UniProtKB/TrEMBL annotation:
SMART domains listed in its UniProt record: LRR_SD22 (SM00365), LRR_TYP (SM00369)
GO CC terms, sorted: plasma membrane
UniProt source species: Camellia sinensis var. sinensis (China tea)
Designated name of the protein: Uncharacterized protein
Keyword Cell membrane: yes
């Protein structure tokens, strides 16, 4: 006890001492009492919620803001060293959550020169005119703070930014740096922007600005850094006013909507070091800007529609670090001048992927000693890999996927690149052998994609020390081993072994991978035996696809523990089990495919009121289910009821690594459905032994696009409620025992493209009008009591009202093209760059790679803060897609 006390006293002494020391030695820094109080009040008006903020680093409130201490020494505070007024407040990423009110104490800190509130969450409160009180402000950063632009005070103003400029910014005569990135400023980029002539840095990325760039922007001649990235609606020709900004060093104009050619006068901007024009609609040749660009460090022209060759006159950019020309329509060969040391000694990253480049990779590539990233995927590059490539010891990312290389290479040759983090050789044309691996090879590798590389054996190789490996794609090879060596790869998150002839049992270790495994695709192999119980221990699992194998037995109940599971594809096995009602609690489950197994028995009543609420696709076809359909099941399938989802911004299922895909068999045709869009909803119960009536409650699944109840024993009438399924494009009811008439109301299903009620006991007049004008005899065959168009059997004198015929996809932004009644659909793309189709068959993928990438335009994501922003290149579409 005595010891504790003395310790306590000692602490007090030290505290006192430091206080006194503080007071005496730097009294000039001691902050003003009122400012100290103000700051504390400001802090108290927020809660701290790091998960609500969008921090690029671990946001943390390091709290040394304590009453009675010198506020000038607090975290994030700067004081003037003569007046001791608070002149700087830097609260970047401090997890602040709450509203900034008009009477906020913040606005009492009138001496502020530097204010940074970025990366907090101010709960969509408005930027207030009170910011105008900081008349000496030189630096204002409100980016990514969930603030929104001020409401227009004046109707003549054209938007929120205009109103902010007029109400506040034009009073801040000393403001040199302004960052409003990712703040909603919906409106035009106003002419009045030209008033902010003192600005050196202006960041307005992702602000929902639209219209053209006003010429007055050319007034901001002091600008060094201009960022307008991600304002998708800024359009038109590239603004020549930017040519006046002679001091510009960094220019971010990516992901706007510019068109035309890239202007030559950009060479006027001789100080430019960073030029980002990616994700626009620029066309024409790559401009000859290069030789004057002595300072350039980064040039990004990727994701445009540039054509023609990479000119061999690209020289004299000794400072260039990054050259991005990916995802254009550039053709010709890669000039070897590019690889001459004197020209590009600093080059760290080259992205030429997804173009139409041909010819070989030049052997002079050794001229780039600092090269770390080389993206050449999705071109038509042929020939062999020059041995010099293996001398680029600094290489970290290498993508040669989807090319026409022709060579057999020992995988271990790449092991010389000891810093390799990501290697993608999928579909490159290379054949890989994997004998004699160096035990220490690939020590640093995280991503290894070797799909379609003619690999016969990999098990020896997998014994090497790839301890960091997170993504392994060996799909579409000729592996026919057992895969126990996989158990060495403890860090695996994504494992794709689909389309091989792997045998034996599914390795039980898969479930034990540190709980990291999220994506497991073993479809189309020869695995047999039962599904290991341990699979369910991989509790992070999001996709489990073990379809098309020879698996038997029952489903491991441990799967009920995989609360992140979104896709469960068990199709085409020999699984013998009852309906897995115990999956009903999985909150994320979107797709269940049980197709073609030996599932049997009735579908039970749901145990819980909220069962399968998130389901988008359920395919139980080709099993032995019996009994009547409990209507309660449909009543809880909420996401199938939602037809109000925003159709203008189409989302795909899947995250991070790629998109979910499901492969199914249809009429002898194998189809891989990739990028299943979230608005695609389907129910397929066909080829079972269900009986009883079709429950009326099916009519509440308003968002359904495909409904298939054919080949069962359903009796009774076709429920009227089906006419509520207004999105329905395919309805299959054939080969049942349905009776009564076809409801006239079904003509209201204006998107119905496939309709089959053949082989039932239906009677009466076939409805006329709209889509019903387009169905043929085969839709009605085998119903002796039906009459009228299109059947030859006349109904006598009965007259029926005809409704006008509408084109099936009239006003539909998207549609599916069906080959039968499965939900297996083929994506059709229509129109100008807008994604209209939803699913894709693998045959299209191969041919139309270019089209694919255009349409799906794999988008780079922006995270973090400017200079630290990583424009992360997600492996482009081809490698994401798991096709045959
Ligand atoms: C105040 O601090 C700044 C930098 O922090 C320094 O440049 C300046 O000389 C200091 N002035 C006085 C009077 O100490
Ligand atoms: C603004 O700066 C000027 C000059 O440095 C100074 O005289 C004035 O007091 C400052 N105003 C405020 C409110 O701090
Ligand atoms: C700017 O705001 C003032 C009031 O602060 C208003 O009188 C003036 O009309 C506004 N200017 C424009 C161009 O709307
Ligand atoms: C551009 O600058 C000039 C002179 O500095 C000024 O008179 C003019 O109003 C500015 N234009 C705009 C649109 O702000
Ligand atoms: C670029 O510079 C040239 C001459 O140096 C000049 O004639 C031209 O007008 C400038 N272009 C722009 C857009 O500033
Ligand atoms: C490159 O494409 C253009 C059309 O954009 C074509 O005229 C030219 O012949 C192509 N060159 C090569 C080498 O394929
Ligand atoms: C690898 O890069 C470093 C700098 O990033 C450089 O010093 C080194 O020379 C490079 N290695 C080779 C072999 O050129
Ligand atoms: C590479 O392709 C070009 C044209 O596409 C062709 O002329 C050349 O012979 C090919 N080279 C090899 C090694 O296949
Ligand atoms: C995931 O793997 C990493 C090694 O890459 C490991 O450090 C981590 O603990 C694993 N996560 C879990 C939840 O086991
Ligand atoms: C689910 O996990 C818990 C704890 O991790 C475990 O006790 C339980 O047995 C698991 N359930 C199944 C069905 O495996």
């Amino acid at each position: 006890m005595g010891f504790l006390l003395s310790n306590y006293q000692l602490t007090i002494c030290i505290l006192l001492y430091s206080l006194i020391f503080c007071f005496s030695s730097s009294s000039a820094h001691l902050c003003h009492n009122d400012e100290s109080t103000t700051l504390l009040q400001f802090k108290q008006s927020f809660s701290f919620n790091c998960s609500a903020c969008n921090c690029y680093r671990n946001g943390l409130y390091t709290d040394n803001w304590k009453e009675g201490t010198d506020c000038c020494a607090w975290d994030g505070i700067t004081c003037d060293n003569t007046t001791a007024h608070v002149t700087g407040l830097d609260l970047n990423c401090k997890c602040l959550y709450g509203t900034i009110h008009p009477n906020s104490s913040l606005f009492n800190l009138v001496h502020l020169q530097h204010l940074d509130l970025s990366y907090n969450n101010f709960n969509h409160s408005q930027i207030l005119p009170s910011f105008g009180r900081f008349t000496n402000l030189t630096h204002l950063d409100l980016s990514v703070s969930y603030l929104s632009g001020p409401i227009q005070g004046n109707r003549e103003l054209t938007g929120k930014l205009a109103s902010f400029i007029n109400g506040t910014l034009r009073h801040l005569r000393h403001l040199g740096s302004l960052d409003l990135s990712e703040i909603d400023l919906t409106g035009e980029l106003p002419n009045s922007i030209g008033q902010l002539v003192y600005l050196e840095e202006l960041h307005l990325s992702d602000c929902n600005l639209f219209g053209t760039i006003p010429t007055s922007l050319g007034n901001l001649t002091r600008l060094i850094w201009l960022a307008l990235r991600g304002n998708k609606l800024i359009n038109g020709q590239f603004p020549s006013s930017i040519g006046h900004l002679k001091n510009l060093e960094r220019l971010h104009l990516g992901d706007c909507n510019f068109s035309g050619t890239i202007p030559r006068w950009l060479t006027n901007l001789t100080r430019l070091t960073l030029l980002d024009l990616s994700y626009n609609n620029f066309e024409g040749p790559i401009p000859q800007l290069f030789s004057n660009f002595l300072q350039r460090q980064s040039i990004d022209f990727s994701n445009n529609q540039l054509t023609g060759p990479i000119s061999s006159s690209i020289t004299g950019l000794p400072n260039l670090h990054y050259l991005g020309l990916g995802s254009n329509s550039i053709n010709g060969t890669i000039p070897s001048s590019l690889f001459h040391l004197a020209n590009f000694s600093q080059l760290r990253a080259i992205d030429f992927s997804n173009n139409q480049l041909t010819g070989p990779i030049s052997s002079s590539i050794t001229g780039l000693p600092n090269l770390q990233s080389l993206y050449l995927g999705s071109n038509s590059i042929n020939g062999t890999i020059p041995p010099s490539l293996f001398h680029l010891v600094n290489l970290t990312y290498l993508d040669l996927s989807s090319n026409n290389l022709s060579e057999t290479v020992e995988l271990d040759s790449f092991a010389k690149l000891e810093y390799l983090d990501s290697l993608d050789l999928s579909d490159s044309g290379l054949s890989l052998t994997t004998t004699n691996p160096t035990p220490s090879s690939f020590r640093n590798i995280r991503t290894l994609r070797l799909s379609s590389c003619n690999i016969n054996k990999i098990s020896e190789f997998l014994k090497t020390r790839m301890e960091l490996l997170e993504v392994l794609d060996l799909s579409n090879n000729h592996l026919n081993e057992e895969l126990n060596p996989l158990c060495n790869l403890h860090s695996l998150k994504t494992l794709d072994l689909s389309n091989n002839q792997l045998t034996g049992l599914i390795p039980t270790c898969l479930g034990n991978f540190n709980g990291n495994l999220t994506w497991l695709n073993l479809q189309r192999n020869n695995f047999h035996g039962s599904i290991p119980q341990t699979l369910g221990y991989a509790s992070m699992l999001q996709e489990l696809d073990i379809s098309h194998n020879g698996l038997q037995g029952v489903l491991p109940r441990s799967l009920a523990n995989c609360t992140n599971l979104e896709i469960l594809n068990l199709g085409h096995n020999f699984i013998e089990d009852a309906f897995p009602f115990w999956l009903e609690n999985l909150p994320q489950l979107k797709i269940i495919v049980l197709r073609d197994n030996k599932f049997h028995g009735p579908i039970e009543q749901p145990r819980k009121r909220l069962a399968f609420t998130n389901l988008h696709i359920i395919d139980m076809s080709h099993n032995e289910f019996t009994g009547t359909l409990p209507s309660e099941y449909f009543e809880s399938m909420h996401s199938m009821m939602m037809d109000y989802e925003d159709k203008s911004s189409l989302n795909y299922m899947g995250v991070g690594y790629g998109y979910y895909s499901v492969t199914i068999m249809n009429k002898g045709l194998e189809m891989t459905l990739v990028r299943i869009i979230t608005i695609f909803k389907a129910v397929d119960f066909s080829h079972n032994k269900f009986d009883g009536k079709i429950p009326i409650s099916i009519g509440i699944l308003k968002a359904l696009r495909v409904l298939n109840f054919s080949r069962n024993g359903f009796t009774g009438p076709i429920p009227l409620s089906l006419s509520n399924l207004t999105e329905l494009e395919s309805l299959g009811l054939s080969q049942n025992k349905l009776s009564g008439e076809i409801p006239q109301q079904l003509t209201s299903l204006t998107f119905l493209e496939v309709f089959d009620v053949s082989q039932n006991n239906l009677t009466g007049i076939i409805p006329r009008g709209r889509q019903f004008e387009t169905f043929s005899n085969t839709s009605y065959e085998g119903n002796l009591g039906l009459c009228g168009f299109p059947l030859s059997k006349n109904c006598g004198n009965v007259q029926i009202a005809e409704s006008p015929t509408l084109p099936s996809s009239f006003s539909h932004n998207f549609k599916f093209k069906f080959d039968g009644f499965g939900w297996e659909a083929v994506l059709m793309g229509y129109g100008c760059g807008v994604l209209l189709g939803l699913l894709i068959g693998n045959c299209i993928i191969r041919r139309k790679e270019e089209w694919l990438v255009r349409i799906f335009g794999v988008k780079m994501c922006q995270h973090g803060k400017r200079s630290k922003k990583v424009w992360k290149k997600i492996a482009h579409a081809k490698s994401i897609i798991n096709c045959l």
